[in-house]
TrEMBL record:
Protein name: Erythroid differentiation regulatory factor 1
Domain EDRF1 N-terminal: 43-560
Superkingdom, taxonomy of origin: Eukaryota
Biased composition, class Acidic residues, residue ranges: 529-551, 1129-1139
Organism of this sequence: Dicentrarchus labrax
Occurrences of domain EDRF1 TPR repeats region (ranges): 836-1232
A Pfam family matched in the record: EDRF1_N
Amino acid sequence: MSASAADREPGIPLDNAKEDISGPTCTGENSKHDSAVCSGNSEIKSRAVVKYSAAPPPTSYALLQEKTDLKLPPANWLRENPQLGSAGTTILGSSSKSKPFSSFGMAYDFIDCIGDDVDVVSDSENIKKLLKIPYSKSHVSMAVHRVGRTLLLDELDIQELFMRSSQTGDWTWLKEFYQRLVDQKWQRKKKSKEHWYQKAILSKFLYYSINGDGAAEPVQNDLNEGEEENGAEEFSSSWPTTFTSTSSDAEESDPPKQESVSVDSMFALGQVTSIPKEQNLPMLFNEGENSQGLRNDFVRNIMWTFEDIHMLVGSNMPIFGGGRYPAVSLRLRDNNKPINILTGIDYWLDNLMCNVPELVMCFHVNGIVQKYEMIKTEDIPHLENSTFSTRVVKDIAQNILSFLKSNCTKEGHTYWLFKASGSDIVKLYDLTTLCEEAEEEKCQNPFTLPVAVLLYKVASNLMLKARQNRKHYGTIRTLLLNCVKLLDQERHPQIIASAHYILSELFQLDEPPQEDGEESLRAGGSEDSYSDEDREEEEEEEAELTEDSDENSSYSSQDDSKAVAVIRSVGELSVPEKYKSTHQIRPSCAFPVSQDKEEKCRHVLSYVLKGLKAVDGTIKKESDLPAADPNTPIPLKYEDRSAIGACAAETGISLLLERAGPLQADQKHPTRSGMLPGSWQHRMKLQLFLKASKAYYVLSDAATNLLKYGRALRYIKLSLQCYDAYCSVSGTLHPQVLQFHSQCLSLCGDIQLMLAQNAKNRAAYLEEYSYQTKEDQEILHSLHRESSCQAFNMATDLAMDPEYQLFVSSKCYEAAYELLVSEALKDHASDQLAQVLKRLGNIRNEMGVYHMNQAAAMQTEKVKRSVSVAEQEMWKKSFAFFEKGMKDFEAIGDRTNTALLLCNTGRLMRICAQAHCAISADQSRGEFSPEEALYYNKAIDYYLRAIKSLASRESHSAVWDSVNWELSTTYFTLATLLQDYAPLSRKAQEQIEREVTEAMMKSLKYCDLQTESARQPLYQYRAATIHHRLASMYHSCFRNQVGDEHLRKQHRSLAELHYSKAVCLFLSLKDAPCELLRTLLERVAFAEFTMAGQSSSAAKLKSLTGAIEIMTETRYAFQLIHNELLEEQTELSEPDPAESAESPDVASAPPSGLNLEEVMKLIGVFEPSFSFLLLQLIKLMTTMKRKPSNKDEELLKTYKNVYSKLLRAEKNAPLLSRVKLHIELLQQLTSQTVSVNWVTPPLLNCSHGRWSCRQAQTVPAPH
């Protein structure tokens, strides 16, 4: 039982306490109150929350004096009064006119509640009528609609609707069906005089009661009874009266409107959602449905929880208050007629819904006031003659709800709950199915449009929540597909276009791939319900199963074949849990989950296309457009751009930049198709064009990742064409749109760059580029209604010339950069700016390399060695691009790429140096020129800057190693050219030697012999070569030096040092036997030359013995040569059968591993030198004066034996035999002589005639 009225403070809402009414008294505030009503030993739970109230705070009612004549009208009668609302002219809020859309008005205003939170939305009168079904013999006729778990109930006044059908033709099919199956002798029933009499005195009673000061005086009753009736009827026909909310209402009445505005801003359904209710509905609904109750005209909207049933109800019951009774309801009763059970249930439910704790009853006899009586709400079920069980009412409510939820299963369908007058049978019909069977148009069902709009609104509202919680996506998709299915595109294109736009928004194109741990989008469904057809079939099957499995829900007979379900007897509704809801709400609300980006984008584009078709269908300015066949592909042109002049290219670039920039002023004139700026078509096309552009962008990006560059270019072309159409329609471009456009241009630049780098696959790319789907063609035709879509042709055409593709790529990046640094975006997207600058630096590097390679190609092809103007132009272009690229990378602090560009510039300088080499008259190489020296030194400067930019190897080891190698190479090349082609005409020999030595030592400095890498063998080979060259130079100086003995000794020691280091490094390599052999032979020659200047026999013997020891070191070189010759012989003797069949001459082809000519030359030097050394040793040891030791004799014997074999060897023997003989002789010598301290490294297996460059153990060089 509720607390007494005196125990509470009015106007203070309490969420968790049980208290009396205060909500209806608090205008414009959400108030929550709980009350409990006891019935016997059981308690009925009832809780009401006032969501909205248009009534002012209740004032005390006037206690009428006894004998007051209610037949006389008060002075204020029928005047607008916010205290009464519309109840002053009606019987406690029930309209004299049918309101088939009243629940929709409430649903529109409280869209957050629809779908999940609320079970029923309805007028309080309809709720009462349903709960009285088992007690009443009167007819029941209600329209039922389902949205999620919410049922919308509206009165369907058959009599009035059939009267209207003769004028509008809307319900002719239903009238015929009704007469055929339900009431064959239907006729209009007129209301009695008694009805109008009771209505009039109730109205007068209420107007008397609102005047607490007694100011209402009776007026002269000039109207006769008939005129009074007509007046009442005339007034009632204008119901409901809309009361303007006071300032205190604004706070509560605003939220629904705010929701609408936010929905509009997101989904562009302008006239449907953003304009206040009184203005927008006439624009949306035709034929004056506004007067049928589409607006929310209730004085208050209440969230009523009755047991476990949540209901949003509208009530117009006047509530009075003040003094001891802050909230009471007033009732007028004829003293001669006792209160029956129906009236008692009426009063009790009204007070429960509005949380009114007490009822004041005024009794009259023939309109003369007799007395007042106050009754507590919880006492109403126990009044004399109207006793009823509240528990039974609760059971009735639960059974009816379960029955409706089990059978009203299809969203968007209109169901009709009907009980004929005096009948115990309740039937449920699916009017949507009946309408379709009657072959009527969809719009012939007047509920179609309000239902569709409601489905759309609920989906839009869920979409706002779905930004944070994507589990709603399946529900949103189902709502919108049902919405679109209900509507005719020609009549309601705006809602259809908006619905398709939201459907396209469900597919998040920029989301990262979903991982296993993330929340699934399926919202409890499965991917089996992917297609609309599957979903519908599954719903139908489940609905049939539900009906068949629930033995209480459906009893079909031959007469009721059209009914979805039947309640055989209203008495069943009083049985607890007789009906149970077994239908799962939205069993198939699965959202199609796909990780495939292309599939997602194709879904988006299909919805965009449907939206565009809906919009285009409303624009009638067809005569101004060129006739286009949607089935005819629009060609995507490609052409060889090599012949296009600079003028045409510059024109295309200017167009590109013009479209890239932000537009200045809003458009005021109609667009190309005839759309007016600001219209819903205009706003919708903007959204759809942009969505299509983003979808094509994602498709292009995905194709780029798959290396399908022709397809990628086609998609980015379509994306930019959508953007071009967007620019044609839009007056201003927002920063986010400009930012997206810069991304498109960057991607376009990427694709053109990749096409230039993969010219060999051009035929495949052209085929991909030329392909078009029908969907793409149709979208393109829609775009052409607004724009020629030519602005970005220069950027997106497939050219055949790589240079032009690089040029286009650079211009795309430049346009993207200009956009990002423009006024509109200067404060946005710093990350994106860094990416674009990196791309700009990269493309400028690519173009620099391209022109550098062109210059190098010219150099190799030219006959005359003089530098041509074309070469110089290429150098200048290449250098300019490298300089710009370096600035781009420096702007973002990218030291690694800056170093790479400096490295490339160094290479360019080397190419310039090579072009300036002097050629003599006989085409031989001339002296090293000053220009060559200048460019080589410039190259060295750039390489040193690159190393400085990197700072250390840890910053980027690969780039550091590359720059190090190039620097070492440049120093080595400079030193080699100075040494081989010494500029003796300009410089002294000593100066050249110093410069050579300096350059060689610097090259040696950058030879990284310690770090294990792929280049280590190359560094070892270069270091060995440098030591060999320096040794040769000092050897030459020693031979030619005359006079200065100190200098000769210095040159001799330096030559020996470098020969020693060269031999050690060549020994560590396994693929340089010729170089090792040459170095050793030069070293032997150096020893021979030293010996020639000696006079004593002992000194000569020592020199000769040292030379022989050096000669024995050649055995390792001969072993390498021998093994390689054996490998080649094996390969030649066992050719591959397949290769032999294909190429008969393959066996006669020379092997590629060993330079046989070089080997023959070196052997030609080795044999005489070896013979000479042996002969001199034999002579010297034979003519020695001192007695030889046994060891000396054995050694002499060995020398003679080796010399003898060498002399007897055949000079024309095969090379392999000669090499083998030399190895044997050297081995024989090695075992007898004092050998050098080195270990022969293990030989490696070779493949294809070449030795592997695997890292070898470095032999320590002598110091």
